[in-house]
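thoughts on these tokens:
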Amino acid sequence: MKNDNTYELFKELDFDNKEPASGHKTRFLKKLEEQNNQTKPLGSRPHKRSLWAPMLSVAAILAIAFMVFTGFFNENTRGNSGELASVSPEMKETQQFYTQLIKTELATLETEDTPGTEAIVKDALTQLEKLENEYTKLKKDLQNSGKDKRVIYAMISNFQQRIDLLNEVLEQIENIKTLKKQSDENYI
């Protein structure tokens, strides 16, 4: 039934099923050749696929990838090292100040390491090591947080805690020395 409808549809349409006029093929080829001659510049060779274009595009992609990678790598190593100094020049000065002060106080503490104060000094060094470990974690947090102010504040607070600890231990050592001197005077 469907075939009958299709047959009727095609029957109604007038298809041109006549043979082309004689010489049609030669006229068609001649027009095609003229069209090809018009698009080609004079003296040009037949079109060959150039290998330079794909090679240049691959080279350009590699160059861009290299620049992006090195820029990203340099940004991570230089600008985001996890230190306070990487945040701003003021933070660099702050870090240098605290680091120098801690070194000075630690050197003073080491000179005060005597048999009478050995336990206090050892405990202070253990506490300092814990604070150093906490500071290392904070450096990682600073890298991950993108220079969050809360992390910066925690890092500065860590420096202050270390200095306070060293000052407190040095005061205790001075108190021990004073008590020992007083007891020695009373003994004599």
